[in-house]
Amino acid sequence: MKKVFEKPKSLGDKHFSYCPGCTHGIIHRLIAETLDELDVRERTVGVSPVGCSVFAYEFFNFDMIGAAHGRAPAVATGIKRSHPECIVFTYQGDGDLAAIGTAEIVHAATRGEKITVIFVNNAIYGMTGGQMAPTTLLNQKTDTTPYGRSAEANGYPIRVCELLSTLEGTYFAQRVSVHNPANVVKAKQAIRKAFTNQVEGKDFNIVEILSTCPSCWGISPLKALDWLSENMIPYYPLGVYKDKDAKKEEVAAAS
Questions:
Q1: 19 and which of 81, 99, 215, 242 could share a cystine (Cβ 3.0–4.6 Å)?
Q2: pLDDT digits over 14-67, tens only?
Q3: Rounded-to-integer distance, Cα 61 and Cα 197, Å
Q4: Which of 84, 78, 76, 9 is nearest to 42 (CA)?
Q5: What pLDDT was estimated at residue 246?
Q6: CATH node for 24-254
Q7: What is the pTM of this model?
Q8: Burial 164-179, CB ≥16 within 10 A → b, else e
Q9: If pLDDT is split at 50, 70 and 90, which confidence band does 253 have?
Q10: What is the distance between the alpha carbons of residues 201 and 224, in angstroms, rounded to a whole number?
Q11: Domain residue extents for the chain
Q12: Are strands 170-177 and 239-243 parallel, antiparallel or unpaired?
């Protein structure tokens, strides 16, 4: 009998321990499938910092390195520059990448570091109990904004893809979601594009993935999927924010 579906070799045997309804597991599988398909597992190194992302080393079946909070891009830079043959990626949450790690990610992008960044945006600090994150939406209630996030008191949510797409060193930036099957397929395509670019020696690549956190949002897993669609996507529109390959194609077509 022909086997048509199996666990990727880039995933280990340990069962995911994420909360029910959390979509980290979906994202892990998409990464693992991509690395298998590109046949780069044996030379891949992942970097996971603080937050729910720190558990990634338990589930992937390749080398993983832990980083201090927010410092994953710096660690990934060191690995990639000392071992350019490796495929290096960071797996970061919004509290990590867009708060304490803002400077790290901005400067890695502007230097055009040849790494891939998987940025999981669930609009809240998940691991530490549900505090407001830089990506928390206006009026969204969290442990530290019990009456909802206020622009006057807390500022506005950061749109990471839009920010990094303005930097010359960024080669590819796309925002996707995994809240339904159609968008899971699109997320897989974006992840594959970002890793393929690195295999081809291209500069900084980031895929921002809108994700759910039912536990800290205080709603059921099914309602969390709807909440993401109804609240996060309007503020964080899905799409490609930068793709230098597309620009090259436009120039070629016009010439």
A1: 215
A2: 999 999 999 999 999 999 999 999 999 999 999 999 888 888 989 999 999 999
A3: 22
A4: 9
A5: 87
A6: 3.40.50.970
A7: 0.94
A8: bbebebbbbbbbbbbb
A9: low
A10: 38
A11: 24-254
A12: antiparallel
